Amino acid sequence: MMNRMMKPHLPKMLFLGLLFSFPLVAGAQENPEAAVKAARKYMQEAEAALADNDPATAEAYYRKAIAKDPANAEAKYNLGNLYYNKDITYQALERHRGAAATAEEKPLKHDAFHNQGNAYMKQKKYSEAVEAYKQSLRNNPKDDETRYNLALAKKMLEEEQKQGGGGDSKEKDQQDQQKQEDQKEQQDGEGEKEQNEDGKPDEKEGGDKKEDENKEGEQKKDKAGQPDDKEQKKQEQPKEGEQPKQPQQRPGQLSPQQVKNLLEAMGNEEKKVQERINAKKAKGVPVQTEKDW
């Protein structure tokens, strides 16, 4: 489990920080000494309010201290910790960023960046947390707590990337995918339209046309399953410029030559029968001899 402990800044260190910062801001304010003293007093009041478990009063005094001395990094840092403990993470980040920007001592910079990393982890912004912990370690490479939190942030970032990113990234991926699908459907529709304009029937039209042709073919057949004679003759008529085609023989129909041969065979058979009849006639009927009784 990540160590989410906010790094406290000891009141003694805060007091020393105020003393050290006095010469740096002396030329920037009209009465720097009075401003620093007032800010120090407000910070003491804030610490007393925290000891009495009164964070609201402590927050008000920290704000007054920052208003009196905008360069007071310690007041910003402690106010950031107060917001963090109240789960006001975005305010905590704002104050810790301000503390890191104005702090001049590395220990305070280190603590401010460390707590920025903790706030980012709370928001599940692992990439930002990694960068914050790295900045913290640049100001104090020996802090094992920061090093541990950095390793954990890297691990969480890796797991998030394996799962396709965080909520925002996942939603963006879904939008991109939907956009690609819409473009594909549009391209498919245009392709079908172009195909129809070129005169090529689509699958539905081809199916309807084929079905109509089948129905028409069925209507042109007689009850015996043969094509209608009228339709057959229509198909046999040659087109202009074409040679007349030989009529196709229907199934079971004799060709003209076969008819001729059959007639000749019948004629020959009839001739043979007639010859046999004539032969019998030539022999005649036996003549009876008249007897004289």
TrEMBL record:
<feature type="compositionally biased region" description="Basic and acidic residues">
    <location>
        <begin position="268"/>
        <end position="278"/>
    </location>
</feature>
<feature type="region of interest" description="Disordered">
    <location>
        <begin position="159"/>
        <end position="293"/>
    </location>
</feature>
<dbReference type="Pfam" id="PF14559">
    <property type="entry name" value="TPR_19"/>
</dbReference>
<dbReference type="InterPro" id="IPR019734">
    <property type="entry name" value="TPR_rpt"/>
</dbReference>
<feature type="signal peptide">
    <location>
        <begin position="1"/>
        <end position="28"/>
    </location>
</feature>
<dbReference type="InterPro" id="IPR011990">
    <property type="entry name" value="TPR-like_helical_dom_sf"/>
</dbReference>
<keyword id="KW-0732">Signal</keyword>
<keyword id="KW-0802">TPR repeat</keyword>
<dbReference type="Pfam" id="PF00515">
    <property type="entry name" value="TPR_1"/>
</dbReference>
<feature type="repeat" description="TPR">
    <location>
        <begin position="110"/>
        <end position="143"/>
    </location>
</feature>
<protein>
    <submittedName>
        <fullName>Tetratricopeptide repeat protein</fullName>
    </submittedName>
</protein>
<feature type="compositionally biased region" description="Basic and acidic residues">
    <location>
        <begin position="159"/>
        <end position="243"/>
    </location>
</feature>
<feature type="compositionally biased region" description="Low complexity">
    <location>
        <begin position="244"/>
        <end position="253"/>
    </location>
</feature>
